[in-house]
Amino acid sequence: DQQVKQNSPSLSVQEGRISILNCDYTNSMFDYFLWYKKYPAEGPTFLISISSIKDKNEDGRFTVFLNKSAKHLSLHIVPSQPGDSAVYFCAARVMNYGGSQGNLIFGKGTKLSVKP
Amino acid sequence: DGGITQSPKYLFRKEGQNVTLSCEQNLNHDAMYWYRQDPGQGLRLIYYSQIVNDFQKGDIAEGYSVSREKKESFPLTVTSAQKNPTAFYLCASSDAQYNEQFFGPGTRLTVL
Q1: Which pLDDT belongs to residue A99?
Q2: Is B34:B85 a contact under the CB 8 Å cutoff?
């Protein structure tokens, strides 16, 4: 069973507009969420994260929103640029007992295409 | 430059042969991970190691083996027991103090 779901395999957006990528999760024990960006034939690069004690985190053009009651997070990119075209993975982590880092659970990714 | 290196970038092997994928990091990270990515799939965890000389199975460990003799290195062996080894393999590492995993560039393994 998928604990982290990205239900949209692809998203197409016009340059300059907002891109909204969505992620749903089922495990209420997740305490930290991350977004990674991946280009073909390359490793993912970390983009932005959010702790479960917050509902918003912003870094430049990227903002992540967390709605714990709905078990939903979203990544907003504004304004979108052609260089943002990539696959975006949502990931979540369960805090291990004792506070040590846990493993990441990844969604299947959403391919974003930003058209000039 | 600090980072994670994986070699080779592309690897071809005949069916039935074992093959070892290299992963090295100079970030002084304690934890290292191996993932597999298939088309249309997320990253699935094969093995991970939180400390030298210790490693744990991930979600899809069957047909794979690892070792962690040095902090900097975490090689992955794809054995002949792995039924569908053709995939893109990603190595990652993280510091115990931080939450983000940093990924290497990946190795595309094709078994002919």
Answers
A1: 46
A2: no
Per-residue pLDDT reduced to its tens digit, B20-60: 999 999 999 999 999 999 987 889 999 999 889 999 999 89
Q: Do A4 and B105 touch (CB under 8 A)?
A: no
Best of A4, A104, A108, A110 to mutate (most B CBs within 10 Å, chain B): A104
Distance CA A90, CA A110 (A): 9
Inform me whether the pLDDT recorded for A98 exceeds 70.
no
Q: Please check the confidence at residue A107 and state whether its pLDDT lies above 50.
A: yes
Can you tell me the distance from the alpha carbon of A52 to that of B3, in angstroms, rounded to the nearest whole number? 28
Residues 6 or more apart whose Cβ sits within 8 Å of residue A36 = A44, A45, A46, A47, A88, A89, A91, A106, B103
Give the pLDDT confidence of A6-16 residue by residue, as tens digits: 999 999 999 99
Q: What residue of B is the nearest CA neighbor of A10?
A: B40
Structure tokens at B57: 């199975």
Verify whether the Cβ–Cβ distance A103 to B96 is below 8 Å: no
